[in-house]
Each structure stands twice: as C-alpha cells, then as structure tokens.
Description:
By secondary structure, this protein is an alpha+beta fold. The protein is 21% helix and 59% strand. The termini are far apart.
Amino acid sequence: MKKLIIYVLIAIFMMTLISSCGDSSQKKIYDDDALIVQKGENFNMKEYSMGEVDIGHSFSMSGFIGIKTIYTLNAKADSTVSMDYDSSTYSGKFKCVYVDANNTLKMIVEQDGSGKLTLTVPKGENSIKIVGVNAEFDLTTNVQNSDGNVEITYIN
C-alpha cells in the first residue's frame, strides 16, 4: 500500500512538472519578439468564442496563454490594409500584433484600446497574431484591403 501511494505521488509530481514547463515556455513568448515573428502556433486557453460579427470578427477568450495567428494577409504586390480594432482586457496580459513578410513586428494594441490604422503590407505572407499570458479579453477586428492585392484569411 505504501508503494502505491508513493507511485501516485510521483505520478502527480511528474504531471505537475510537465504541465508547468509548457506554461513557462508559452509565458516567455509574450516579451520575445523573435518568438512572436516565427511561423507556428503555441497556445492554450480555457474558454473561447470566435466568429463573424456585423463589423468583422470577434474573439473572446479566458485563460489564454501563448500565441495564435488570427489572420493571414497574402499580398500579390506591396499594398496596404486598414484595420479597425476594439480590445478590452479583464485579466492577465494581452496584445495583438502585425508581423510582415520581412518579420518586422508592429504593435496593434496592448491590453485595452480601440482605433483604426493602416498597415503597410509587403508582397508575401503577412499575419496578425494575438499573444497572451493568462489573459481574459474581448477583441473585435475588421481588416480590409481596397486594391485587391491582398488575400485576407480569417483563421478560426
């Protein structure tokens, strides 16, 4: 019986150790621009709701940690896109960023804010990403291209 208890305690310890290692690497992403500009996803979340709304797309998440691409912007030629955004963060750390085809990072919004901006989109694959650490937030976006040179793909 003592051996069984010891094995159970060891198993619990190992699961805790493994799960905390994942959180640690995801937390590092928030402040590391070199990790943010890389392709790929690395995130976890407790609850989420994403979808289309009258004015674009809506993202509502809690317990979000890591990085997720929400749009890809594939440009046939150098162009621009306009983006409206409205962000409310209730807990944790949250930001939405733009990464261009040259891996240049531009902050769109951190924590709370709303506005409209124009993004310069070079030819190639560009993206808009959300990054968080234990974040609970709501984000509404609308991304548009007027000259037809950019294929905007919403990633659910």
